[in-house]
Automatic annotation (TrEMBL):
Domain Transcription regulator PadR N-terminal, residue spans: 12-85
Gene3D superfamilies, alphabetized: Winged helix-like DNA-binding domain superfamily/Winged helix DNA-binding domain
PANTHER family for this protein: PADR-FAMILY TRANSCRIPTIONAL REGULATOR (PTHR33169), TRANSCRIPTIONAL REGULATOR RV3488 (PTHR33169:SF14)
Name under which the protein is recorded: PadR family transcriptional regulator
Span list, region Disordered: 102-121
């Protein structure tokens, strides 16, 4: 994937990096990873999972029936893992560059001590 990942996609792939998860577990993991900033609705999530599956980044791991309902688990595919690693490295380099620039700025713009009016008393 040559273009940067959108944040929801990045967080979905990150949620699946540890282990296969079913849809509602992915929603919970994305909310936790984003400190509650991003809440995926089921329709949005399943549309994203369909696109990620079509792109080969995610695969269906297994299906099971729980309380009479089908629960589908998704896992990160090898291509998804490579894509997530590349995007993580891209973001890391960006953070490193921004941190260096901010550090240089704070060193260059040091506040000076206030001058006091004075003279001989």
């Amino acid at each position: 994937m040559d273009t940067p990942l959108r944040e929801p996609t990045f967080l979905i792939l990150t949620a699946l990096a540890r282990e296969p998860l079913h849809g509602y577990a992915i929603i919970g993991e994305v909310a936790a990873l984003s400190d509650g900033r991003l809440t995926l609705r089921p329709g949005t999530l399943y549309g994203a999972l369909d696109r990620l599956t079509d792109a080969g980044l995610v695969a269906v791991d297994r299906e099971e029936t729980v309380d009479g309902r089908l629960r589908r688990y998704y896992r990160l595919s090898p291509t998804g893992e490579t894509t997530l690693a590349a995007e993580t490295e891209r973001l890391r380099r960006n953070v490193e560059a921004a941190t260096a620039r901010l550090g240089a700025r704070s060193r260059a713009v040091r506040p000076t001590a206030p001058r006091t009016a004075g003279g001989l008393a």
